[in-house]
User: What shape does this take?
Amino acid sequence: MDSLRIEATSCSPLIDFDPAAGLLRIEGESYPENSFDFYAPVFSWLEEYLKDPAPAVVLDIGLSYLNTSSIKCMIDVLEMLDGAHQKGQTVSVRWHYDSDNDRALDMAEEFAEDVSLPFEILAH
Amino acid sequence: MKGNELFNLQELLSRQKLLICFSGPFSHSVIEELGKAVRNHLENERIEKSAIMDVFSVYVEQAQNVRNYTASREALGRPIPANSGIVVIGKEGDHYVVSSGNLVEADDVPGLSAMLEKLRGLDKAGLKAVYKEQSRKPREPGASGAGLGLIDMARKATRPLEYSLRAVDDAYFFFSLEVQL
Assistant: This one.
């Protein structure tokens, strides 16, 4: 399966998914003009990938700001990964946040509440 | 605009402690550039990063709501006359206040006011419950947003959302929303 890479812009994050290594990275800020259009390729890539993923998959998220429609997209991404976890695949999330931004921590904690997969929140 | 009208407008605006005011058609690039300006300004004020992000995020939700609503009416073949919205960020005492105004179709008024009245009656825990419930709903086909914007603003606000809906003519109301942080 091909890797997925979408370069960051000032209002959309870097998407860098390496299928062989099982390393998925989303980094930056997310308030694109249309979040659902922006994340559509991410959803379809993940749907395909999670049928036969690497032995261990880690999603590294470093999002300092998301608008509400991006939050909805991120919930959908996490639900897809949580589904794979519930089927017995090894999937985890590491959420990175800037320690002087309390809002980013609150947001990470709310995302973690809704999933059962291993979810680490790391301050930088 | 004539000189004395501009003077009056400027005087009216400067009575509020105004950070930014934009009125006109909202494009994504306008929303982005104004957002950058707001953040730069607040960073220079040396306020906490979380407070900067609250102002910025309420501004983005309001501006994108205005833009998405306007774009959706255009897509339905019912473009809004005088296609312009307004967004204002100011300071009242120690609080930043983010406000927006735009025309909405008369048919949308009952749903909008019911939603806002519901949110106004909820405490923090109630708002969180409504937010979680909405965030788990599958996205409506064709919807540009997730239906979370108003709930998110209500959660960030330090007092219930203030709003008004004023009839402009038979077809349109002017909707204004004020969020105090």
